[in-house]
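Example 3.
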Amino acid sequence: MPISSPYKPLLVLLLAGFLAALLSVGIGSTAIGFEDTLRVITGSGTELQKTLILELRLPRTLSAFATGGLLAVAGALMQVLLRNPLADPYVLGLSGGAAVGALLAMLAGVGGFLVSGSAFAGAMLATLLVFGLAHGSGSWTPSRLLLTGVVVAAGWGAIITLILSMTPASRLPGMLYWLMGDLSHAATPWPGLIILVLVCLMVFPLGRALNVLARGSLQAAALGVSVRPLEWSIYLMASLLTATAVTMAGSVGFVGLVVPHMLRLVLGNDQRLILPACALAGGTLLVLADTLARVVIAPEQLPVGVITALIGVPTFLYLLYRSR
Amino acid sequence: MTRLTTEALIIDIPGRASGVPLNLVIEPGQVWGVLGPNGVGKTTLLHTLAGLWEPRSGQLLLDGTPLGDIRRKTVSQQMGLVFQDRQDGFPATVLETALIGRHPWLLPWQMESGEDLAIAERALEALDAIHLKDRLVNTLSGGERQRVAIATLMTQSPEIWLLDEPTNHLDLQHQTAVMKLLRQQAACDRAVFMCLHDLNLAARWCDQILLLYPDGQACWGPARDMLVTSALESLFGQRLLSAELDGFPVFVPG
């Protein structure tokens, strides 16, 4: 759609993300001032500050940014796919599948990499399950897809409860933290960041087709969009994004639902603008939420999922109440 | 100038016998009206012609080439469709809605240019909807939305215009304006093919008529030959009175 300067909101969001990251690496057990932080980033500063920022805080901040961005873009993509503002990786059971994968690995007593791999496999399995079942012998209708996702998500919820009830008490805390979303175990931010950037580059040429698809699949087909391949690629992309995010940080809820909504209210519905904006705003939101999670009851840490839900629920209700 | 031909086409309505195969030639400059009772398959026929619904048998040729052999994008530059119902999942303005008609003409990474904007605005003007351009589509009345949908097709500017009951929700003056617009398009060597409910609109504005009967029978030809009281009475199961006004037949229920 014609926007006088489509990049202005993106620049504002980019700046906000940068400031949030600066704030996040500065705050913690040892506070580091703005100027010192900038000095470290430009290559000087004391050894202690360098270690703190570059080795401890910056990777975690980048992981938070990547996770938030991935989830927000995944949510925005699914909303277009289902033509329903309620769609979100969590509502559709993708994160439920990932959680079951991760918990089973934890129950088996394996650590680190295998938990991540198992979570990723679980998310992809959930994807195939929902789309396979929703397709059935008929066609994909958005409401059928959404309903299938919701029911499958409920199934995952039951399996999660079952696993938790069979787990020895000593292993429960780690599992609960994983379920609530936690960035302290994020190994490296790079795969997530790279996937986020790649998908943003990929969706830009798809953006106008997504705008047309939002008007319904028949209308899109009549305007020359190859609907089925487009729908499959959106779904696969959204699943990949979700699986990557969940693998890094466990289940962090509400980002995929709330961020695209807020941006649509402010920026309109051009997906070419909304999708990169989601990446930036989702990332910024999670960086801030993770900073809060680290400092609210320091030296103890809260799971970041708790913060996003506590911020997300009232914000969402307020927006819903105010619209119309 | 594009010609759409159907060869022994049988549209696929689940659970219904195949009936008479359609051999239509929709020529540039013609205005077709499809008449038939509810549920007879008028919408399915339009969707089949647009390549959105597989026929049970037979084939469609666009300038002699089977429709399936042409890229979807190329087809949508040649042929466009106004749907009977529309969904607006996310709020969008009237101008944004008209602009999606440019989609087939743009490369994936291309933004809409000033020229595309001008085309959309001209179409909205032609449909008397330019004053609505910044309104959200979901706040419009039924008739206003119908005009925006036709403006979207005009923005797409295909050679073949398929319309599913284009006069739905329109008041009398806009019905006439839309029909005049469609005739103008036909005069510019485009083909217009629409489903209608109003016999008198068909009699006044269409030059070719296709009658679809519930049992799968069908007949088609020049309007003069098709709009015969006895044929229409059996089509709708309704007695009709007819008269001639200004050289056009007029039908009222008897």
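Residues 11 and 55 of chain B are 5 Å apart (CA to CA). The radius of gyration of chain B is 18 Å.
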